[in-house]
Amino acid sequence: MRIGIKLMLVVAAALVAAAPAHAQRQSLADRVGALEQQMYNNSANQDLLNQINQLRQQVTSLQASIEQLQHDNAQLKQSAQDQYLDLDSRLNRLEGGNAAPALPPVPASAPKAAPAPAKPAAAATSERPPSVHGDAGSLAASGDERTTYNVAFDSLKAGKYDDSAQLFLSFLQLYPNGVYAPNALYWLGESYYATRNFPMAETQFRELLSRYPTHDKAAGGLLKVGLSQYGEGKVDQAQQTLETVVAQYPGSDAARTAQDRLQSIRLGKQIR
After folding, report:
1. Spatial separation of the C-alpha atoms in residues 197 and 230, rounded to whole Å
2. Closest among 144, 186, 193 to 168, alpha carbons compared
3. Could you give the CA distance from residue 141 to residue 139 in angstroms, rounded to a whole number?
4. 250 — phi, psi (to 5°)?
5. d(Cα 63, Cα 81) in Å, to the nearest integer?
């Protein structure tokens, strides 16, 4: 019995003596784990610092690329603007400085306008006389369609656009279906266009196209419809009309002028 008690006391003493060593081992393991965690954290921080440095280098490179692109874009924009202004200037000179073509010869078989039938005296006193625009004396002295047309056309060539507009109006009243009526409609529109009366110019060019769609002035008339629309500020409609000129009259002077104006319109849209 005594031997058993002594043995138990010895075991208890041994356990008491062993407890600090176990506690010490546990504390050492915790410290090692903490050190390992700190090392891991330091490695992660270093990786993060490396990534930040790489990102900074990429941002610097991108900023340099952006500045170069901005510089190139500014140069392209300036070049496009210069081209637009040059092209627009050349087109304006072309449109405003076209020499008027020679008058078409009077066809040998073309009959002169028949004189108006005599009216009874009662009708003559009740009807209003025709309205004559421009220089009535010049018109009265002309005597026939060709000479009357020449009077208006000479005024146009002299740059007297207000006068030529009135004279062409008078011609069309006197000879609404004459040989030179299509030409008169065209140059009436040109007279308005030269004074920047674009709505009236468009009206006359459309009248030409409506009455004489196959006349040799039709291509130029459609071109001037588009240019008049452009002058009115109807850029989208003008672009559509000019594209129609290119499609309907390929290879013509009107198509080439329309193509140049289309290029000018597109450049103008790019630099806005």
Report:
1. 12
2. 186
3. 5
4. -65, 140
5. 27
